[in-house]
Write a structure and sequence with these properties.
With 520 residues, this protein is an alpha+beta fold. The chain contains 16 helices and 23 strands. It has helices spanning 3-14, 17-52, 61-71, 88-106, 121-124, 128-134, 160-170, 215-235, 282-287, 311-320, 349-359, 374-383, 394-399, 420-445, 453-462, 475-485, and strands at 75-77, 84-86, 111-112, 118-120, 139-144, 147-155, 179-188, 202-212, 242-245, 257-264, 270-280, 290-292, 298-300, 302-309, 337-341, 365-367, 388-392, 401-406, 412-416, 447-449, 466-471, 488-493, 512-517. Helix 1 (3-14) runs antiparallel to helix 2 (17-52), helix 2 (17-52) packs parallel to helix 12 (374-383) and helix 4 (88-106) packs across helix 8. The longest helix is centred in the N-terminal third of the chain and has 36 residues, at 17-52. It is globular. Mean pLDDT is 91; it is low at 1-15 and 17-33.
Length: 520
């Protein structure tokens, strides 16, 4: 029994009615205050305990990233080095990315297919440049059961050769074109160094492969799919990207041209977030993919290939996350709203929480009815990146309101229960928009210009981010910059700027403005 309650018992024996009421009022207030202080202390301890589990990104960005992946329970390691388990929270994000991206693909006429995961060695070896580009990362199957195979099988690192083999039989006439296919699958590349989502030996992706009657159609599709990726990143992932063409040094093995979208992470490193390749008729000539055109002559098809991977989840973490954990854009958040009942054991609180869940059924919503303290629940909701939480307790119910807290800004907004559906939707839309704006501001603040090599070196020595500089077009300058500063050309942007007249490296007349950066 609280000390003041013992004192009250004495007063009750000797005092009049007013004194009795006053004594109870004082002791109840005192006890309530202590309970409140105790709860607040528990909440602070819970928050501190969860946050301390994450390394501050300012101290060690790589460790911060790994901590967030593990603490938000997105992935787990396995006994096979470089291979990961997608836990429910991580796979749910990929499902939402996949579903929304697939809808955008199909709106452009794409059809999904599925091809085998094994490629005969003789088929892979048909395209010299292509196989040389992947040879160091290829995993081979040499036995079927106990019997050695007559020919080694490659576990697909990508499926260009398989699609070529397929199109060789599927395309006979101009009436069979265009072929606009995509497959959702996993691929295997035997990487030496791995990192969750960004680089693993087996990863999930989509790879589109198309065949066209003319070079113009192929180029149009190549750019079209790059724009689909760029729009998706900005509108769904809230990640701004730079669109452009890769240099010949950086293009895909076997491609005529490679186009890319490049995003800037919070630590100032670049992440290639999607690529689209124009193969011309090179693969078609190697694999014999011909068709009879309208003029009754045999012609080779022109092909494209384009892909994105689960590294998009890594991009979301590194663009939007903070020292409390994950921050998910609402459009890919498996849970968009978490309803957290306060003092849930009190009559009517849980019922009201579930009533709100039902009313918010247009969104992906859950109720946290566990027996953890409110502070722990708040910290857990923040750790997992859930966009908004709705706090509802006895006093809120009595006042006909609740509190909505945004994950990205931690802003708390009192909302009438009568307006909860409308307000929740408005806040989620605003959060999606402002997350993109914030990421774009960060990119602009960390994008610099260099007109000479001295400035170029100084920027990469002292700053982190993109550096825009002119380039002569010679690979020797690219090689020198990479060897000296561990910096690569990210892309030649479609929106060219004339920063100067000469190459930042050699001083010869410049041909293109290039975004340069350090990348994952």
């Amino acid at each position: 029994m609280h000390a003041c309650m013992q004192d009250c018992q004495g007063k009750l024996m000797t005092s009049n009615a007013n004194e009795k009421c006053e004594a109870f009022r004082i002791c109840i207030c005192e006890e309530s205050r202590e309970q409140s202080q105790k709860q607040e202390k528990e909440e602070n301890m819970a928050d501190k305990k969860l946050v301390e589990a994450i390394t501050a990104m300012e101290d060690d960005f790589a460790q911060w990233y790994t901590d967030v992946v593990k603490k938000a329970e997105l992935l787990d390691y396995t006994s096979i080095k470089g291979c990961m388990v997608f836990k429910p929270a991580g796979y749910a994000i990929w499902e939402l990315i996949q579903r929304q991206m697939d809808d955008r693909f199909k709106a452009t006429g794409v059809e999904n297919v599925y091809l085998p995961m094994f490629i005969p060695e003789s088929l892979l070896n048909k395209e010299k440049d292509h196989v040389e580009g992947f040879a160091p990362e290829v995993a081979w199957v040499t036995h079927g059961g106990l019997q050695p195979l007559q020919e080694r099988l490659c576990v697909r690192p990508t499926s260009e050769t398989l699609f070529c083999d397929y199109y060789k039989n599927a395309v006979q006439s101009y009436r069979d074109l265009p072929q606009i296919c995509n497959q959702w699958c996993s691929v295997v590349r035997w990487e030496k160094e791995t990192r969750p989502f960004l680089r693993s030996r087996e990863f999930l992706w989509q790879e589109g492969h198309t065949a066209h009657a003319t070079a113009e159609e192929a180029e149009e599709r190549t750019i079209q799919m790059l724009n689909v990726y760029a729009d998706f990143c900005e509108e769904v992932l809230a990640i701004p990207v730079i669109k452009g063409r890769k240099t010949d040094k950086e293009k895909f093995a076997g491609a005529t041209a490679t186009y890319t979208i490049e995003a800037l992470m919070h630590d100032g490193k670049a992440l290639q977030s999607g690529t689209s390749h124009n193969f011309g008729d090179g693969f078609a000539k190697t694999f014999g993919i011909q068709f009879t055109d309208k003029d009754n002559t045999l012609k080779y098809v022109h092909q494209t290939s384009w892909g994105t991977t689960t590294r998009l989840i890594g991009a979301v973490i590194m663009v939007h996350g903070d020292n409390s954990g994950l921050v998910l854009p609402p459009r890919i958040a498996p849970t968009q709203i978490m309803v957290i009942p306060i003092q849930q054991k009190k009559e009517g609180v849980l019922d009201k929480a579930y009533e709100l869940k039902d009313r918010l059924g247009a969104f992906r919503v859950k109720v946290d009815d566990t027996d953890k303290s409110p502070g722990w629940k708040f910290s857990e909701q923040e750790m997992r990146g859930i966009p908004i939480r709705v706090e509802i307790g006895p006093k809120d119910i009595e006042a006909g309101k609740c509190v909505i807290c945004r994950r990205d800004t931690r802003e708390k907004i009192e909302v009438s229960l009568d307006e909860i559906e409308t307000k929740a939707g408005e806040i989620l839309d605003l959060m999606q928009k402002e997350m993109l704006e914030h990421a774009r501001e960060h990119r602009e603040e960390h994008t610099y210009e260099a007109k000479d090599m001295e400035t170029f070196r100084k920027l990469f020595a002292e700053k982190s981010g993109f550096v825009k500089a002119m380039w002569c077009g010679e690979q020797a300058c690219e090689d020198q910059i990479k060897e000296e500063m561990a910096v690569t050309s990210r892309c030649m942007p479609f929106e060219q700027e004339q920063i100067g007249e000469t190459c930042v490296c050699c001083g010869k007349p410049a041909k293109k403005m290039v975004y340069w950066g350090r990348a994952y």
